[in-house]
Amino acid sequence: MTAEKIEEEASKLVLYVAGETPKSLAAISNLERICKEHVDRRYVVEVIDLKKHPHLAREHDIVAIPTLVRQLPVPIRKIIGDLSDTQKVLVSLNVSGKP
Q: Which of 9, 15, 22, 83 has the fewest Cβ atoms within 10 Å of its own Cβ atom?
């Protein structure tokens, strides 16, 4: 399988946080748990700290944090919050769940 084919089949999730606040740490932890327990396809997770890269908030239309963005597959989907509601995250992002 080529690298391009693998990328096409993978979900790309980008989590925008602001430093190591309780909400940011909870969102990271919840996302790790959700991916491990419920996502049955390949995925790539990138965490972007907007305290270190504030210009990315405007460039990527991030208005609140933490925000999780599913960049791939298209269309782009976003969810704001600490990701504590697993079912809401799975439905909002339309991520395949394990049976």
A: 22
